[in-house]
Amino acid sequence: MSDNHAAHLYGTGFEPSESWKNAVKVLQDAAPVTVPEGASAMTIKVEWEPGEPGTPPHRHFGPSFGYVIEGAIRFELEGEPERVVEAGGTFWEPGGDVIHYQDGNALSDARTRFVVVMLCAPGKPMLQVVSKEELEQRAHLRAPRPTG
Fold it and tell me: What are the tens digits of pLDDT across the range 83-128?
């Protein structure tokens, strides 16, 4: 940027900082996502009280990307083992037919907060709770549960 452009944009005496180059840290890098025309996106913040089990088993009709701000969530997608994502950690799910089993607070003594960006196929709800009948029919697709 020329000095004239910088002065016009920022005023006189401005010397751009180079710190912006170090201000960004990649937290998650997921496979490319195709977003159909007419899709929608939503960013939500979720706050679970200590021990809150979270949303019942559900699915999203598009990919979701999350970041844990505080605490820890118990995260489980169909076909993957349950895991705990702690503050500063990320998670994502592909959406579509995959069941999201758990997103509850993994802590019994502290609140958990996380942010999720969800993309949604046109004409579909952002979240659909899965019926007990479907959970039973798809039980063979769930990863083995932790013991102990």
Answer: 999 999 999 998 889 999 999 999 999 999 999 999 988 889 999 9
DSSP string covering the chain, please?
--HHHHHHHH-TT----STHHHH-------------TT-EEEEEEEEE-TT---SPSEE-SS-EEEEEEESEEEEEETTS--EEEETT-EEEE--TT--EEE--B--SSS-EEEEEEEEE-TTS-S-EEPPHHHHHHTGGGSPPPP--
Report angle CA 38, 44, 48 to the nearest 5 degrees.
Answer: 145
Q: How far is CA 11 from CA 7, 8, 18, 98, 126, in A?
A: 4, 6, 18, 52, 44
Domains and CATH numbers, the chain: 36-141 (2.60.120.10)
What pTM, to 2 d.p., does this model score?
0.80
For residue 37, give every residue at least 6 positions away whose Cβ sits within 8 Å of its Cβ, in sequence order, or none. Answer: 122
